[in-house]
Amino acid sequence: MRIIGIESIVVEVPTRMPVSGVHGITCSQRSVLVRITTDAGVEGWGNVDPSPGYTLMSADDIQAAVAGLAPCLLGGDAMNLNLALATMDRALAGSFEAKAAIEMALCDAKARALGIPVYALLGGRTKSQIALNAWIGTVPPARAAEEALGWRERGFRSAKIKLDGADPIGLRRVAAVREAVGRGMALRVDFNESLPAGEAVRFIRQLEPYDLMLVEQPVPRDRIAELAAIRRGIGIPLMADESVVGPESLIDIIRREAADIVKVKVMKQGGLLRTIAMVQIAAAAGLGVVLGHGFGLTLSTVAEATVAAVCDAVLDGCEAVGPLKMAADVAAEPAILDRGVLELADSPGFGVAIDPEALARFRKA
Fold first, then answer.
1. pLDDT, tens digit, for every residue of 71-113?
2. Which of 14, 85, 235, 272 is most buried (CB neighbours < 10 A)?
3. What is the CA 49 to chain-centroid distance, rounded?
């Protein structure tokens, strides 16, 4: 089965309501879809969802990278995922987001051609239901508490609270949420690189009474030595996210003992196969692993849930919850996440059909 076409499409889908975070207020998500067609009449779809402030490449950058990679893949074996990845690496350094979208589409096409779900292609799942993690943005404490109660009532058993630097209101936000939900909900906090290193240990220690599962990425992504120093000075498990890119960065974190937990994403790591490899490396080093990204469409969400399903080392509370934030989708049947879990389908590929009308409606010229 040969690749005869690679098309990349940028869409912009509005959120249900403005989402407030460390990097500002988000009212829409610009995502990239990749469609691969084959000479066997089988097609596959991939999807990545860059987030300004977190992802260094924009949707337009990713679309351009896909276009640049396409010529080296056309005519190639659509069933040979390893060769496709190696070919892309030789053609273009970095650009993990573009490579992830293409590899995702190839996984979808290969599994559809074989008549099996992608999780079977990857060796089989260890769980069919993926528990999800709720989120609470940089909102006033009273609203944060109200939102947390709403998530708990819907069935979510864990939630992430965003904190912006060493602002005392962040402490009050966490305190309000913990008081509202009691001890029956696991809580995480995420600084998204916004905490000054000199204030990090002192500030994070003030969070210790609230029984947190983890504190995420307090300092900028390239400050691994500072992450290690912070980890040694606090009593809450520390998770690295933005600092985790390729295997080299993960090995550096392991060697420096800079984190207790790492977060991986299919988009960030460059595809499903490479994300699974990162999970295995982290698990072998004794680190916990969280998986998922906060904004996104159904296809990328199902792809990440698939990785969580085949990797037993991935912790409960997958953060692939983008469709909950979106007012619409390009999938004919958007993922249903309302009760805090995602059920994986047994359909061939990812089991996600793209709605042509929705694609046309949200497509950017």
1. 999 999 999 999 999 999 999 999 999 999 999 999 999 999 9
2. 272
3. 9
Dist. CA 64–CA 61, nearest whole Å? 5
60 within some domain: yes
Q: Which residues does residue 29 pair with via DSSP β-bridges, in sequence order?
A: 13
> 72 lies in a domain?
yes
Encoded tokens for 93: 């350094």
Angle CA(124)–CA(46)–CA(322) in degrees, nearest 5? 85
Q: What residues pair up with 135 in beta bridges, in sequence order? A: 160
Specify the 3-state DSSP secondary structure of 21.
Answer: strand
Distance CA 29, CA 250 (A): 28
- Statement to judge: residues 59 and 131 lie in one domain: no
**244-250 contacts, C-beta under 8 A, 24 or more apart:** 244/268, 244/278, 245/96, 245/221, 245/269, 246/96, 246/270, 247/277, 247/278, 247/281, 249/224, 250/278, 250/281, 250/282
Task: Give the residue among 269, 101, 270, 288 at the shortest CA–CA distance from 213.
Answer: 288
Task: Flag whether 348 is in a domain.
Answer: no
Residue with tokens 């896909």: 66
Check the CA dihedral 13-334-37-98 and report its sign: positive
CATH of the domain at 79: 3.30.390.10
The reported pTM is: 0.94
Among residues 20, 293, 320, 316, which one has the least CA distance to residue 162? Answer: 20
**Are residues 75 and 126 both part of a single domain?**
no
Domain count, the chain: 2
Strand 129-131 relative to strand 134-136, pairing: unpaired
Identify the domain containing residue 307 by its residue range.
121-343
Q: What is the DSSP letter of 345?
A: P
Q: What is the mean pLDDT of the chain?
A: 95
Instruction: Give the CATH number, domain containing residue 253.
Output: 3.20.20.120
Q: Would you state the pLDDT for residue 23? A: 66
